[in-house]
Design goal:
16 strands; alpha+beta; single chain; 267 residues; Methylamine Dehydrogenase, Chain H; WD40_rpt
Length: 267
Amino acid sequence: MLLDVAVSPDDRFVLTADRDEKIRVSWAAAPHSIESFCLGHTEFVSRIFVVPNHPELLLSSSGDCTLRLWEYRSGRELHCCPVTSLQEPTEPWSDKRFAVSRITYWSQEDCVALSCDGLPVVYIFQLDAAQRQLVPRQLLTFQHRVWDAAFEEGHGLWVLQDCREDPLVLYRPVGGQWQSAPESAELRRVCAHVRVNWAMLEGCAGVDSGFSSLYKATCDNMTTYLKKKEERLQQQLEKKRRQAPPPGPNGPTKKMRAGELAQGCSS
């Protein structure tokens, strides 16, 4: 099952992400010819993104709650960063499984933003291309579920949330931190346009994500085996107790051989 598709900036490669935890890199001119596999995720790969100003690099997210950086032509994993590294363990969703539903990128600052499967948060990471690593930067929290997020060059980070009265929030970097921009004529105009089309958004973006059905089912075979073994032994013991003869007045009755039984009868 394909979950996402990307094309390299030079149009030479087609990259596909699937439920079976892998990313496949194929030649666009001959898709049956596989250049490499990017292997490392332990759950379905939800999103992939080729970094536009570093076209040799690929970002990927998964149901295993990690953001990974790849050199995709060789299939080499450069860095793995847990998405949960930015959140506090006391958050109400801290023990919930989730997957990234959007990867968006701001080339001006090599900034990566992630929205996640209906959670009221956006995760901000910094791509250090020279060191080939991802650096956690900031966790943006909201009062409502986040439906989507996107960078607009020169403006900032737009966040669409599940709130008709306040559907859009614009964030801009201030002193190294992303902060909510004050209300402006531009923000009011865009919000008004979103409200006009709210019924369409509510029907599409508002539905629950399908990621929850993609997680691998777990089965503890050893526990099941030991439980059935114990039940079987108990059944065998119960059967033996039912088949055993009742004890005599002086204790259990001793079984007699056929000859001893005949001799006893003649006497």
